[in-house]
Amino acid sequence: MSAREYDLVVIGAGPVGENVADRAVQGGLRVVIVESELVGGECSYWACMPSKALLRSGAVLRAARAVDGAKQAVTGEVDVAATLARRTGMTHDWNDSSQVEWLESAGIDLVRGHARIAGRKRVEVTRPGGEVVDLIATHAVAVCTGSAALLPNTPGLREIEPWTSREATSARSAPASLAIIGGGVVGCEMAAAYASFGTAVTLIARSGLLGGMEPFAGEMVGEALTAQGARVLTGVDVVSASRDASGRTLTLSDGTSVTAEEVLVATGRTPRTADLGLESVDLTPGSWLDVDDTMLVRDTDWLYAVGDVNHRALLTHQGKYQARAAGDVIAARARGAHVDTSRWGAHVATADHDHVPQVTFTDPEVASIGLTAERAEAAGINIRVLDYDLSWVAGAATASDDYRGRARAVIDREREVLVGATFVGPDVAELLHSATIAIVGEVPLSRLWHAVPSYPTVSEVWLRWLEAYGRP
């Protein structure tokens, strides 16, 4: 066994691990990153980037058909082969050479193989050829292994070999029919993508669509999916699965069944910590890792867990936000420098608490930040809810002849600040960062009166919210 010594060992070379490593190197540390698959991780090859590529063609086509003068020029449907080729180009055909070049340029060493923690500040890596490399961390180890699709223990489900999000985003062709289990972000996005390909999609969502968001978000997405040709089944669960020559069959709790060429399971995520050696440091294999706001695993002084694996916010942008804080604090602690752990300090990821922006790239898009009305009331906040039909602003009328959208602001009456915002409509993702700034910055409504939205844009909804609330 060969041994190497570094200040920091990062396990997992996805966007989160890359950012931890990069910030630590900028802070003067010697860093190695370990990856068992592709450098760039889930987001680059099986999640964010390929999924949005699959969705974009259909969304653009529908947008063109919603504008007179453009719709007359549309003579066909989505070119599935071209869409899949564009997706494959975006993933570099699942080749990570460009990402490896970036690591080299950033001064980060790479070891390929399966990493296991072998004790305090020690990581053993089994390389593809069987060689074991012993990595010693003089200061810290950061676990950035992310999460994997969760398969429920439904009888027969594993035996039918269902798709997870990985197979759905990397498919080389579109199936004739697809049954999707789960009404969350992945389920809704893949339903939209494959419906645009002409696939007969059935979405099975026991508790409805986009749970945890404002109720109207799931309702509007469900209506749109139905209009796009998908079948949406709510209030039923899958009780068993089987497979024969006719396809894969799901038996539902109401006694009916759904048969499809492929089945996609999108029912949640599980941490990739089962074979990480956590037992060697008295932690539970397969568990989420509990951290403080500097991403330090509680009851340790050397082990960090960043991104999905700590279960704070399973989103790439939030993981990268955590990573920037973690890389900086690891470097600062290694140097014995001042560590700023105040609420909005440089070395904490405070915005994981009720300040998480998220976009669901269905058509219409759903963009949200902060608290829903229900969660705000449960937290004891005296709120006022402001709802507005986005089709009433001038920017919507110029963007589409059939614009349909809705926006909700959740206002803390006592502090007179925004604590939650949800937008549903075409291209509303671009509205979200203004709401994020308002919430994170706790900008008073009285100040927002002086943030004038451009005309004619959909951003004019901000003025309409303020008018509804009333001048100070």
TrEMBL record:
Kindly state which keywords UniProt assigns to this record, in alphabetical order: FAD, Flavoprotein, NAD, Oxidoreductase
> Which Gene Ontology terms cover its molecular function?
oxidoreductase activity
Q: Where is the signal peptide?
A: none
Q: Which cofactor does it need?
A: FAD
What EC number(s) would the UniProt record show? 1.-.-.-
Against SUPFAM superfamilies, the record matches this protein to: FAD/NAD(P)-binding domain (SSF51905), FAD/NAD-linked reductases, dimerisation (C-terminal) domain (SSF55424)
Q: What class of enzyme is it?
A: oxidoreductase
Q: What's the domain of life for this entry?
A: Bacteria
TM region(s), chain numbering: none
The FAD/NAD(P)-binding domain is annotated at 6-317
Span of domain Pyridine nucleotide-disulphide oxidoreductase dimerisation: 356-462
- Record family assignment: Belongs to the class-I pyridine nucleotide-disulfide oxidoreductase family.
Q: What is this protein called?
A: NAD(P)/FAD-dependent oxidoreductase
Q: Which organism is it from?
A: Microbacterium schleiferi
